[in-house]
Specification:
Elements (H helix, E strand, L loop, with lengths): L1 H26 L2 H10 L2 H11 L2 H29 L6 E6 L3 E6 H27 L1 H18 L1 H11 L13 H14 L4 H11 L6 H4 L1 E2 L6 E2 L4 H7 L7 E6 L1 E10 H9 L15 E4 L4 H11 L3 E5 L5 E6 H9 L13 H15 L7 H5 L1
Parallel strand pairs: 4-5, 7-8
Antiparallel strand pairs: 1-2, 3-9, 5-6, 8-9
Length: 372
């Protein structure tokens, strides 16, 4: 009887440890690993080693777990057969009078052992490991390091078998969808504020946004003829709220550059008011309306510019995109200064188009507009 309990205890204890190790190892996040790695020491270096070569610790865990289950089952079975070999202990089971059998102690011991392994060495320890992995991580790393050294030949053999099934290391284990899900979880858990999680989600979707999605449409862009004099433009636009104004030659479809409002005011002070606007013209970044916003942002940073001309497929002006537009997209907010009368220029452009379309009869007027 003593040996039966010894074999059962050894099997369950080692299986319990293996289940805890496995749950903890698979629950440790890349962020936690990086933090411990920056702190230095044994734990960080080993965690990085385990995460980069995950099949090594897993092979050690599964090898020890299999040995524990096999040896434990054989030992318990052999002891049960020896103890109750000639025993009449058990129950006669009668199933509705059609089938009957004798349930001996060997079968009872096997059922108890199975249930013990299922709950005590599988379900309970894996739940503990998944919930308390931070606290158990140091113990797991140190104990697994010993197990790997002790079972090195078997671990090495397992690695040779599984190395052909490993994923391409160049691929990230985390996708954009994973980061979005983690952001939602962090917001619900209180680790991130709502505005912080909003910015992260906007950043993750940044690569899908094009210049046409953020630009100020052509119909509401304020532009000036480059042949106009500085004084003439100023007299007509004394309350101009834009700091950068595109310049065109003949029509808006032929944008040649832009000028800074500050430069225009400086020219007036310097008595250069009769010069043409072309004299203070600056080069303008030109991009297609399908140009990705991340690339546009990089151009703004590299060239230290704030606006870009957005053109359509046939080269005509589609609108103007600014650094402010890009940042608004990232933050998910409209940046409105004290001089802005309209928050969204795209909405204004739509309203103007609808008004013009109604006047031309392209779309129907509503009842209120008919009365007016």
């Amino acid at each position: 009887m003593f040996l039966l309990f010894v074999f059962a205890s050894i099997s369950i204890v080692f299986s319990f440890l293996c289940s805890v190790w496995e749950a903890v190892l698979l629950s440790i996040t890349p962020a936690y690993t990086e933090v411990k790695l920056k702190e230095g020491g044994f734990l960080g270096n080993k965690l990085k080693e385990f995460k980069e070569n995950i099949d090594r610790p897993l092979s050690a865990i599964l090898t020890l777990n299999t040995v524990a289950h096999t040896v434990g089952a054989m030992g318990v079975g052999a002891q049960a057969a020896s103890i109750w070999k000639d025993s009449i202990w058990g129950w006669d089971i009668d199933l509705f009078g059609y089938y009957s059998f004798f349930l001996g102690m060997e079968v009872i011991v096997a059922v108890i052992m199975t249930m013990a392994i299922l709950y005590i060495s599988e379900i309970f320890p894996k739940t503990i490991g998944a919930n308390y992995w931070r606290s158990l991580a140091p113990f797991t790393v140190r104990s697994l390091n010993i197990v790997i050294k002790f079972l090195y030949p078997l671990v090495w053999f397992s690695q040779q078998i599984t190395k052909f099934l490993k994923n391409d290391k160049s691929k990230s284990v985390l996708s954009r969808a994973d980061f979005t899900a983690m952001t939602d979880i962090a917001e619900k858990g209180g680790e991130l504020k709502q505005n912080e999680s909003k910015i992260i989600r906007n950043l993750l979707g940044f690569n899908k946004i094009l210049a046409k999605d953020v630009m100020t449409p052509r119909t509401v862009v304020v532009a000036a003829d480059e042949t106009m004099t500085i004084r003439e433009f100023y007299e007509k636009n004394k309350n101009l709220r834009f700091s950068r104004v595109p310049l065109f030659q003949d029509s808006k479809d032929h944008i040649t550059g832009y000028f800074l409002k500050d430069k225009l005011l400086a020219s007036l002070i310097e008595k250069k008011d009769e010069d043409q606007l072309s004299s203070i013209k600056r080069e303008l970044i030109v991009v297609n309306d399908k140009y990705p916003i991340p690339d546009l942002f990089n151009q703004f940073m590299e060239k230290r510019e704030h606006i870009a001309l957005v053109v359509g497929d046939f080269g005509g002006m589609a609108g103007i995109a600014s650094l402010e537009d890009v940042i608004e997209t990232l933050l998910g907010l409209e940046i409105v200064d004290e001089y802005d009368g309209i928050e969204d220029m795209q909405i204004l452009a739509r309203q103007k188009w609808e008004k013009r379309a109604k006047e031309l009869g392209l779309i129907k007027k509503n009842d209120n507009e008919k009365k007016d």
